[in-house]
Amino acid sequence: MIPSLTLPPRKDGRTRRRVLLALMTLSVVLLAAVATWAPARAQSTGPLRIEITEGVIEPMPFAVPDFIAENAAAAPYAAGVARVIAANLSNTGLFREIPASAHIARIGSFSAPVQYADWRAINAQALITGAVEVSGNQVTVKFRLFDVVSGQQLGDGLQFAGSADSWRRMGHKVSDAVYGRITGEGGYFDSQVMFVSESGPRENRVKRLAIMDQDGENVSFLTDGSALVFAPRFSPSGDRILYTSYESGFPRITLMNVATLQRQQVGDQPGTMTFAPRFSPDGQSVVYSLSIGGNTDLYVLNLSNGQRYQLTDAPSIATAPSFSPDGRQIVFESDRSGTSQLYIMPTTGGEAQRISFGQGRYGTPVWSPRGDLIAFTKSSQGRFHIGVMRVDGSQERLLTSSFLDEGPTWAPNGRVVMFAREQAGGDPAIYSVDISGRNLRRVPTPGPASDPAWSPLLP
């Protein structure tokens, strides 16, 4: 018996909260080997591999013909799943799709032998084939990945099952599997992005929290725009978010359950402003800024018992804190040296070490999920940049440059950074770039958008 994932139907945006709840609470392993067509070998050691480095990478040419519709009801989904996969892989900049118009071979059935010579003739190095079957409201997607050069299947075939409205998510799952097999690293396609959706005139902007798939699809709104909101942050499990709201007239940190939209203020203290929150890696605590009497310091709040302790105590502004993945350190920005710079200190408090020493001002540091890099915003000589540096401040590398780039957020695999960009006189938009500075691309949103926050991979 092949285990599979069953997702609830998503008929329209109004069911979004119920769907999210189901997605976040899934405990069943999604991937399942298809025993009837799995290859004899467990994993290919052939030449199909992309070594991700910081140098120039020639995209790997691949082909993904429309998936086979194994019954009439599957026809609406067969091509769509293949297009989701093609777009995901192409958007990484690591892969280049060979269009269907160039294909020589045709895939007539899922089990048909691969005509490797035909695919080599068009210079395809990887081939993804698949099929879709629909039974009632249940959609099953299966795929295989082939190393065209060596003429071998790469890894076992896999299949995913779910309701009809989860077909795009199954395409993301296939994309993650293909990406992982070829690069040897985890993917990031089955994830979401929280952001601030903006509308209205500049002097009276309406800002709403919104959530979408990482490729810009399936947008829904979590707040109604009656209060300004900014800087949303996902919990490590993706089921909660923190953000700063002006609902009370002052900046206050709000905790929201993504599925139910229930919210509560945290770290509230009369006469103060609280902002810039971020979860600890275990999701049990929040580090944030609290401004009182004109001084802004960092605090850590235990969400379970409400206990709070002060991390910094200096006559300067300390803000934008971010935990290291092991939870032992915090990187933050402070102007204690006269200009805004980046510092690291133990989570338990103690002396902070400055790590940024280049020209200009540094802010909004975010620790990579890999733990090896810190992404930041830098302003220098009238330009804004998104950059990365080692945690000791070495090997600073600027990835972007524009009128205003700010607020980086990491993909779950630590290979891509998303951020907000605003051109002079223009509206903000969300962009992504990989950590080598290549493959800068705009992420589609319904309108002006800022403050992106990338979720972990969905369960």
TrEMBL record:
<protein>
    <recommendedName>
        <fullName>Tol-Pal system protein TolB</fullName>
    </recommendedName>
</protein>
<dbReference type="InterPro" id="IPR011659">
    <property type="entry name" value="WD40"/>
</dbReference>
<dbReference type="GO" id="GO:0042597">
    <property type="term" value="C:periplasmic space"/>
</dbReference>
<dbReference type="InterPro" id="IPR014167">
    <property type="entry name" value="Tol-Pal_TolB"/>
</dbReference>
<comment type="similarity">
    <text>Belongs to the TolB family.</text>
</comment>
<dbReference type="InterPro" id="IPR007195">
    <property type="entry name" value="TolB_N"/>
</dbReference>
<dbReference type="Pfam" id="PF07676">
    <property type="entry name" value="PD40"/>
</dbReference>
<dbReference type="InterPro" id="IPR006311">
    <property type="entry name" value="TAT_signal"/>
</dbReference>
<comment type="subunit">
    <text>The Tol-Pal system is composed of five core proteins: the inner membrane proteins TolA, TolQ and TolR, the periplasmic protein TolB and the outer membrane protein Pal. They form a network linking the inner and outer membranes and the peptidoglycan layer.</text>
</comment>
<dbReference type="GO" id="GO:0051301">
    <property type="term" value="P:cell division"/>
</dbReference>
<keyword id="KW-0574">Periplasm</keyword>
<feature type="domain" description="TolB N-terminal">
    <location>
        <begin position="48"/>
        <end position="154"/>
    </location>
</feature>
<keyword id="KW-0131">Cell cycle</keyword>
<dbReference type="GO" id="GO:0017038">
    <property type="term" value="P:protein import"/>
</dbReference>
<comment type="function">
    <text>Part of the Tol-Pal system, which plays a role in outer membrane invagination during cell division and is important for maintaining outer membrane integrity.</text>
</comment>
<keyword id="KW-0732">Signal</keyword>
<dbReference type="Pfam" id="PF04052">
    <property type="entry name" value="TolB_N"/>
</dbReference>
<dbReference type="InterPro" id="IPR011042">
    <property type="entry name" value="6-blade_b-propeller_TolB-like"/>
</dbReference>
<keyword id="KW-0132">Cell division</keyword>
